[in-house]
Amino acid sequence: MNRFTRLPLTLALLLLLGACHPLEDAYCNARLPKTRVLVQALPIHYLLVQRLDARQLGDAHSDDGERITYGLTTATPSVQAEIQLHVTTLPGAVCVRPDLTVTLGYQPMQVDMARELAPASCPYATVFGHEMKHVDVYREHLAKVAKALEAEVRSRIGSALPTRFANLAASEKAMQDFQNDWLVPRASELLQAVAAEQNAVDSEAEYARVAAACPGDTLLSGARAPNP
Fold it and tell me: What is the largest CA-CA distance in the chain?
């Protein structure tokens, strides 16, 4: 089973708006380093827990109170951004160019195993293997998101020419606008899109495999896929 927790993301990045006069642009280009954009994915780490029984895990996973759940993987998207602004002054203005580093992850991540599952038993190994499929989906999706988001940020920045602002406060306002109006919603959308891939893991075929994985042990024999 998988449950995806959606929480607000916090980011702060600079929106490059407008363009300098060609002479001012040349002046800034000569004094500012090129923009660097890096979007990276944190390694996936999970906490393995076995403190709830299958009924309690089912209650955590479903609102109907009737589900028996032997394994549950939960994760929260996380985003961190680091910005270094390179600044040079113009008459009555400043010219800025940023270095952007964005770090994406699913943290914390927790894999819950039901108390009924005896360690080293076939049912435990079967359920744990199923939950690792959910963990793998997070890992693979995170790598795809990092690559896609970096490409989109680079596209937004365009040619990465220095941008002129009246003052540093104006550049901070542009930074906040970029965060609220595009980057946070887009990063959230990309990270939350993992839900469809996670639902695909919990297929009827996968649950049939789990139910038949341990001949002679009836603990998992009633396993069924979640309702759509």
Answer: 82
